[in-house]
């Protein structure tokens, strides 16, 4: 499966993903094309937002980077080590530098364990930061996420709200001092007011700990507030990659324009979303030829069916895969 182009990738990135393909077997010898040749990178201290509607492959991409899903092909390089070709103890050691925060904070916590045991479990497994230094580190992390009350550590997850449980999940990830933090829809299960609190917390933690984050979300308004760059995905492919301000001020791909037009109260000069996109998302069992968005795009031509577009730079830091931007 060909990728959408790798010219946008940079050197010296802490995380570099090249032509990632993830496919799942289905009935009648069919294949689900979840991720098809996706490439991106992350510089140290950067936040990359991945956006797209449900079924675009953004969550599968994040899980494949973490090796929670098997990559059919492609490269996943963390600090120069290709995880896709690594196995056994070497892979286990390398994965320690990545941590993931999941969409549902309540179900991702062990209900029978105390909070302080949940947070320090990774340190115990790896035997790092032992003794009093470990306890002090755990206390510092708990305080950093807003859970500094000593009584919090003695309680169990069911005694907390969803927002507080997500703070516990963030603490559990941060305590391992990761090089890359992958966040899969970390605020979508929370109330709007709590979402803002968690986003503000992540921003402050990024400054304090120099975090490098891969932030996955379907909410473009949320992604705008947290990301340095944004990557738009559609049906397992990359449509557009740009610095956040560039993408939101000048959306160029028809799919990106449709997504931004659907945001309530947007200030861009865009037609209604219904004029920019039509129909339903095609099945990943049988994705369209050429440009996968062509079946819903008002600008589609015969070229779009015959030739897959690759990412091309239209202005510094702004890349798009479209024959008719």
UniProtKB/TrEMBL annotation:
Keyword Nucleus: no
Stored InterPro entries: AAA+_ATPase, ABC_transp_ATP-bind, ABC_transporter-like_ATP-bd, ABC_transporter-like_CS, Oligopep_ABC_C, P-loop_NTPase
Residues annotated as domain ABC transporter: 15-260
Stored SMART domains: AAA (SM00382)
Keyword GTP-binding (UniProt): no
Superkingdom: Bacteria
Molecular function, one GO term: ATP hydrolysis activity
Keyword line: ATP-binding, Nucleotide-binding, Transport
One annotated GO biological process: transmembrane transport
PANTHER family according to UniProt: D,D-DIPEPTIDE TRANSPORT ATP-BINDING PROTEIN DDPF-RELATED, TRANSPORT ATP-BINDING PROTEIN
Family: Belongs to the ABC transporter superfamily.
NCBIfam families documented for this protein: oligo_HPY
Protein name: Oligopeptide ABC transporter ATP-binding protein
Organism listed in the record: Ilumatobacter coccineus (strain NBRC 103263 / KCTC 29153 / YM16-304)
């Amino acid at each position: 499966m060909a990728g959408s182009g790798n010219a946008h990738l940079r050197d010296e990135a802490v995380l570099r993903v090249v032509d990632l393909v993830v496919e799942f077997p289905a009935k009648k010898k069919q294949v689900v094309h979840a991720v098809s040749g996706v490439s991106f990178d992350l510089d140290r201290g950067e936040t990359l937002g991945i956006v797209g509607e449900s079924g675009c492959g953004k969550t599968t991409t994040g899980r494949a980077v973490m090796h929670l899903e098997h990559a059919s092909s492609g490269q996943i390089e963390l600090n120069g080590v290709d995880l896709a070709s690594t196995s056994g103890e070497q892979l286990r050691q390398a994965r320690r530098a990545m941590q993931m925060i999941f969409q549902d904070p309540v179900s991702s916590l062990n209900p029978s364990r105390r909070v302080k045991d949940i947070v320090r479990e990774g340190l115990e497994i790896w035997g790092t930061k032992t003794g009093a230094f470990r306890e002090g580190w755990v206390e510092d992390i708990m305080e950093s996420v807003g859970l500094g009350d000593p009584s919090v550590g003695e309680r169990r997850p069911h005694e907390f709200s969803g927002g507080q449980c997500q703070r516990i999940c963030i603490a559990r990830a941060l305590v391992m001092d990761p090089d890359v933090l992958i966040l899969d829809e970390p605020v979508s299960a929370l109330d709007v007011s709590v979402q803002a609190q968690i986003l503000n917390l992540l921003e402050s933690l990024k400054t304090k700990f120099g975090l490098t984050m891969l932030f996955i979300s379907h909410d473009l308004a949320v992604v705008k507030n947290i990301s340095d760059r944004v990557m738009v995905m559609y049906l397992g492919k990359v449509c557009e990659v740009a610095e956040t301000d560039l993408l939101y001020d000048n959306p160029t791909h028809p799919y990106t324009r449709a997504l931004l037009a659907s945001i309530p109260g947007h200030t861009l000069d865009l037609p209604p979303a219904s004029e920019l996109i039509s129909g339903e998302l095609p099945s990943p069992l049988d994705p369209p030829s050429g440009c996968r968005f062509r079946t819903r795009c008002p600008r589609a031509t015969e070229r779009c069916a015959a030739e897959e577009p690759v990412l091309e730079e239209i202005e510094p830091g702004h890349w798009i895969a479209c024959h008719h931007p």
